[in-house]
Design brief:
The complex is a heterodimer. Chain A is mainly beta. Helices cover about 10% and strands about 30% of the residues of chain A. Chain A is elongated, with a radius of gyration of 32 Å. The relative contact order of chain B is 0.16. By secondary structure, chain B is mainly beta. The C terminus of chain B is likely disordered. In chain B, the strands form 3 sheets. An 8-stranded mixed sheet of chain B has the order 2-5-8-11-14-17-20-21, with helices on one face. In chain B, strands 1-4-7-10-13-16-19 form a 7-stranded parallel sheet, with no helix packed on it. The chains are: A mainly beta, B mainly beta. At the A-B interface, loops of A face strand 20 and strand 21 of B.
Chain lengths: ~475, ~190
């Protein structure tokens, strides 16, 4: 039953600014705070830019200059697929002897999905395979650039004034970029982040910036305000009577992907350079440690740092559900998997009456009261035939089976509500966690580095509809 | 006679593999290649296929009875399905269209209904199910999950290179069905 393994069946509760319930596969675990983190309680940072089709890395400065577009790859303006370069042989006169013709290669862009070619918009075939294709120029570029410069200057001035006011309150060792307010102002009008670490003893950076700015402020940029016109170009006379050529009309999506021109006709749709994608890294907001840091190489999908929850927290999965009947006790088989290599002790506790975290459950649940012991994950267990069988005294009423680092156990569910909808149960799972990360403060006594702490998580299971 | 109806008339120069299933009154023109496991079934009428077509594996060209008519009812005239020249029926497509022109490409797993008429240069994209009652104008491309349409400026190129290659290679690995010399209506007088 593959539907029992769907990710939204078993949800873990994350304590953050918002109480988020999501499946363990989407959560991260900060092992310095010893807490679960979801995507909404971490800060996302751009790690690197790369093109999805040619997988070329691009440094951030260059990406910003090229407006986050790849230099080599194009998107089909019709279906947004990646364009491929095709070659044809055309007879062309030789440069030495105009009377003889030789076969030369001519290149054009073509889309494999909707069969659009660059010849459809009148782009001539190029003689070089790459680099010959230019995007048409925006006639308003100069005005736009001037406006951007003016507003960037304005934003800088505003930012400095705000920093001046908040100077006293900001802690001196906080790096500039991570102050939430500064980030907000810096991103206004796209200035770009400037990470400036404040050295102890040196004058506070913003003040230093202030003095510099006043010197540079001599070149002030003035812009002419936009002028409103009284007369508008009239519509052509046959605007209402001319029959529509439907294949020629562009769709809204095609039009808006080219904001410079927004052509109404398909014969003006020029291909645009492909948009770059980013690799992002995640950082815990409380302790500022990295939770996820991908590798720099675009072709590699591995991570330098990967603190995902599934490799630290035991995972509960639903194995089989009997027919659930209203107010009748049913036995549900769950599995618990131990991701770490050491033995883990797990206790399950039902939710008490009036538990503020227990808002979704629609059934009463009786969890096994005894402590469950999970063996460590042994990567070589599959190959080691002479392994001693694990000797755990399992109560057959509680533990259904045991297989290396996984056990199956029973819980009893009594659905309490007769309405339509899924039967939801929740309970708390308490397990021991050995923090293998380096201790932040070195202990004076010879503390066993693998001292266990007990973590509790609130788990919700969605067991499916009632059977009449 | 019944026996004459069940023999396919394959013109000289066509390459039709033995493993393909051809049922009913089917005429296949010269330089057409029919791959093994292609199926051409003429149930409710004959099928005439022109020259230079490429019919790939698991393609199904079927002239079947419309859904509301029982096969044995009388008064149903057999309609001929005509397929022009230089068409490509890619792997796994199904075509029931009664009239297909020239230079069309029906991509993999496309599905054409009986009431469609393809003119020339049309491309029916992969997995597109088109079941309307219309004539598709020339050089139309139907693509995407929503069967979007656009018109291209040039028709797809005939697959001459591929046809030549297949006509050389297929006989090396498969047995071919026997060709029949088609009698032409006008025989040039020779001295």
């Amino acid at each position: 039953m593959a539907s029992l393994l769907q990710p939204d069946r078993v949800l873990y509760l994350v304590h953050g600014e918002k109480k988020i319930r999501s499946s363990l596969s989407t959560l991260y675990f900060c092992r310095y705070c010893s807490e679960l983190r979801s995507l909404e309680c971490v800060s996302h940072e751009v790690d690197s830019h790369y093109c999805p089709s040619c997988l070329e890395n691009m440094p951030s400065a260059e990406a910003k200059l090229k407006k986050n577009r790849c230099a080599n790859c194009f998107d089909c303006p019709c279906c947004m697929h990646t364009l491929s370069t095709r070659a044809t042989n055309i007879p062309a006169p030789l440069p030495d002897d105009p009377s003889k013709t030789a076969m030369k290669k001519a290149y054009y862009l073509a889309c494999g999905f909707c069969r659009w070619t660059s010849r459809d918009v009148g782009m001539a075939d190029k003689s070089v395979a790459s680099g010959g294709w230019q995007e048409p120029d925006n006639p308003h570029t100069q005005r736009i650039n001037k406006l951007i410069e003016y507003y960037q200057q304005l934003a800088q001035r505003e930012k400095l004034e705000r920093d001046r006011k908040k100077l006293a309150r900001r802690r001196p060792y906080m790096p500039l970029a991570f102050s939430q307010h500064t980030i907000h102002v810096v991103e206004k009008y796209g200035l770009g982040t400037r990470l400036q670490r404040q050295r102890p003893g040196a004058p506070i950076t913003s003040l230093a910036g202030l003095s510099l700015k006043e010197g540079e402020d001599q070149k002030e940029i003035n812009i002419e305000p936009a002028q409103a016109l009284d007369e508008v170009e009239p519509l052509p006379e046959d605007y209402y009577t001319r029959p529509i050529n439907l294949p020629e009309v562009t769709s809204l999506r095609q039009r808006l992907l080219q904001p410079d021109f927004q052509p109404a006709g398909a014969s003006q749709l020029h291909p645009k350079h492909k948009h770059l994608l980013i690799k992002r890294s995640l950082r815990c907001r409380k302790c500022e440690h990295n939770l996820s840091k991908p590798e720099f190489n675009p072709t590699s999908i591995k991570f330098k740092i990967q603190l995902v929850a599934v490799s630290y927290i035991p995972e509960v999965r639903i194995m089989s559900i009997p027919n659930l009947r209203f107010q009748k006790e049913c036995q549900v088989l769950l599995t618990l998997t131990n991701p770490v290599e050491s033995i883990t002790h797990v206790t399950l506790v039902g939710c008490e009456e009036g538990d503020p975290e227990d808002i979704n459950s629609t059934a009463k649940v009786m969890v096994p009261t005894k402590e469950l012991v999970l063996a460590g994950k042994d990567a070589a267990a599959d190959y080691d035939e002479l392994a001693e069988p694990q000797d755990f005294q399992d109560d057959p009423d509680v533990v259904a089976f045991r297989k290396s680092n996984k056990i199956g156990f029973f819980i009893k569910v009594v659905p309490q509500r007769e309405e339509d909808g899924d039967v939801t149960v929740s309970f708390k799972i308490r397990h021991d966690f050995r923090n293998l990360a380096a201790p932040i403060r070195p202990s004076e006594e010879d503390d066993a580095p693998t001292e266990a702490i007990w973590l509790t998580h609130h788990v919700e299971l969605s067991l499916g509809p009632l059977v009449a | 006679t019944n026996s004459a109806k069940n023999v396919a008339k394959i013109a000289a120069g066509a390459v039709v593999c033995v493993e393909s299933e051809i049922r009913g009154e089917v005429t296949i023109g010269a330089r057409t290649v029919v791959h093994p496991k292609a199926r051409i079934i003429a149930e409710a009428g004959p099928i005439v296929i022109g020259e230079g077509n490429l019919i790939e594996e698991q393609a199904l060209i079927i002239n079947s009875y419309p859904e509301n008519i029982a096969p044995d009812s009388e008064g149903v005239e057999p309609k001929t399905m005509t397929i022009g020249i230089n068409n490509v029926f890619e792997v796994g497509c199904m075509s029931q269209a009664l009239k297909i022109g020239d230079n069309n490409v029906i991509e993999s797993k496309a599905d054409l209904g009986r009431n469609m008429i393809l003119t020339s240069g049309c491309i029916i994209g992969a997995c597109c199910q088109v079941n309307t009652c219309e004539v598709i104008p020339e050089n139309t491309v139907i693509f995407g999950s929503g069967c979007q349409r656009r018109v291209q400026t040039e028709r797809p190129q005939p697959q001459t290179l591929q046809l030549d290659f297949l006509m050389k290679i297929l006989p090396n690995y498969h047995h071919m069905k026997k060709t029949v010399k088609t009698t032409s209506a006008v025989t040039p007088a020779k001295n």
